[in-house]
Amino acid sequence: MSFGGSDEKLEAVEVTHSPATVSSVIAAAAAVLAVITSGTSILALLIGVFGLVAVVGGLFVFDSERALLVGTAFVFIGVVVSGIYGNSFALLVMGTFGSILAFDVGSNAFSIGRQMSEDTETTRGEVVHAAASLAVGVVIVGIGTLIFLVSLSELPVASIALLLFGALLLAWAIRS
Amino acid sequence: MDVEETIRRVIMGTGLVCVLAGFAIVVANPSLPFGVELVFAAAIAAVVAAALIARSRLQGEITETRMPNPERPSNNPRPGDEVDRMLHEMTVMRQGITENREHLEERMDRLGVAIVQDREDCPTDEAREILQSGSWTDDPDAAAFFQGETTAADDAGFTDAMMGGSQEVEDFEEQFRAAVEALLEYGEVDVDAIETSDDSGGFLSGLFGGSGGDEDDAVEANWNTSDSSVDSYDTDEPFEDVSLHRTNRWLGVTAFGLLALGVGVFMFSPGLMMAGTVGIAYTIYGRVTAVPPTNGLTVERTLSDEDVQPGEEVEVTVTVRNESGSMLPDLRMVDTVPDSFIVTEGCPRLHTALRDGASATFQYSVRVERGEHQWPLLVVARDFSGGAERTSLITPETTLTCTPSLKVTNKVPVRAQTTMYSGDINTRQGGSGLEFHSVRDYQSGDPMNRINWKKVAQTGELATIDFRQEKAATVTILFDTRQSAYVSARPGEPHAVDHSVHAASDVFGALYDQGNLVGVAAFDTVPCWFSAGAGSEHREKARMLFAQHPALSPMPPNRQDIKGQYIDPMTHVLRRIQSNSQIFLFTPLADDYAMEVASQLDSQGHLVTVLSPNVTTDQTVGQRLTRAERVARLRYLRQRGIRVIDWDTDVPLRLSIDRAQARWA
Lengths: 176, 665
Prior knowledge:
heterodimer; A: mainly alpha; B: alpha/beta; six-stranded mixed β-sheet; five-stranded antiparallel β-sheet; 19 helices
């Protein structure tokens, strides 16, 4: 090239879009927590471990958000199965909390990876998001547990059905 | 209000009624005419809904702003891409078989005839006969390509119907490839063998669909607008709101919640019902929080140098301060540096959270290109949950001006078509000057210092010595900046127009320093004309022209908004050019038009020098074909006596000029 003077060739920096590291680690830890809480039943544990492998593989090996999503789904199914086999209330809530956190923070890791890049300074943004999700979870679990412990035993079946229907429809409307 | 919105409201209303009724039952506890069956039905419905929602989440129903990768160089097409695309369409997609086939056959015919003509030195008809006889090659496939040609063109409609069988397309492709190779060999075109690269993805990454791509899957090239979801980065406003939308990223959690609720009701398990409630609550969290406006963000961009030359590096520091009065919990920012720049160090992005009054800074270096540049910062702000996303462009006032220096690096050979002004070029006319030309009889009025006194002393007769007159030339630097010239050898390398303009700014300086009158013109959809002239003001104006004229822009014409009908791009040049002007034509010779321009100017009596940066490559059949075509054009021009400098862009232009001069001498 005949650029005057500047003989050294300036190359563009590399840009890669892999999931953000801090969020990935938090998501994997949350998934591990969820799998441990579902360990009261062997079947649940097996499903959970399978999901965990997909979560970790998706985040750290294959850069695949689909693997992460399927993985967290399996981790959560593991939690539900442990609930079917009579897991305790506290462990179930913790397991749910862990799965949702893994899902949220993990998918955020991919979102940041796509919109930012590997060399971007992202720690502060990631930590704030994860902390907010955690705090909201603590509040939800606190309030929910209180209501349930106080009222659930006396709740009539019909009201559960209606509440469920209501929640379903609301979720549906919110979805679209 | 559309139907979907109405339905959504109806569903929401029903949901609310159900929830209220449920609470009413809890409070009043009346006996109701339905029992456990309905509860089970609801539970099953919940599980089914969970599965549906999970599926839509997996299908990627999330909407987030796609950000550009401004670090990377722009993605210019390579010469020959269109040929490869046509072949791909024909063989893989099975589209436009007849049109593409006709186009390729026509191109091959023209190339074949040109190459045979060049080698055998014969008229067109004879060359075509040689081509069709097949005697020029040993390869039967290559010979068959030109032999079968007339019949295929004759009953094209019929062949297209027959092409339902894939055999014929494959035969065509095979013959086409063989013919290109044979022509390369026959025409002695310099190419390397095609390197076979094997880039089949890993088995496991294929299994998982790899939405994020592989670890080593680095971004190669980028166009700011087409590789992102923002339509345009051209903004006059300091602040522009692009969009505000929901990301739907909590969809999966909704599925979790419904699944747990359904199973929990079925099993009468309070723990699972609680789990479901947590899921639903998170969904609502993703819905209710809102993104604060971002117009309270102030962006300050400082440059290490605001007035630079093309190819230099500038350090950019961006400081973002939140003065909106509320917290911005999730800010994703990309500084969208112009497409013609590349980032050489650091990262033009930042992901952070800013309290009111807080500020953040990031820093990077760019290699700049000519022009006057002002670019926006792309800001994507989310709320805490990330459920909604606001995209905006904030443009600080900082302007970067990048103009070439027009400094002289080497001497440029000018030919002997001159003006009446004295200058640097030795002409064939005698007169006053330095170099001896001839001795002639004295004519009254000849200056005394040119009388040949020795001869007077010998013979007593007066004689006058003539020296070669030194004159200035008028040179017009003419650029081919049509879209076809915006091609580069590899993504990330400068395209032919960049090469041309960089070289021309040196050539301009050299010609100017040699005392010539230099003008600049380009044939493009935007007329560019700068009459030849002299003087430092002229030089300064030319410098600004190189930097800012839209026809010489580093961006191809279709990336700018140019509307209008087709006019022959040479019209304005031919109308204005002086009859005694020499031409330096910068063109990659990517099509026949550029070659015709050179011969047209030549036949009008201009002395034309073609400077052609070679941006062709040789790794696919299309690239090899275009290289052969370019070589054929070069040879044609040389045969017409037009000076051609075939510029290998890896070496400085100076060396190519020296090499070409040795050939001319």
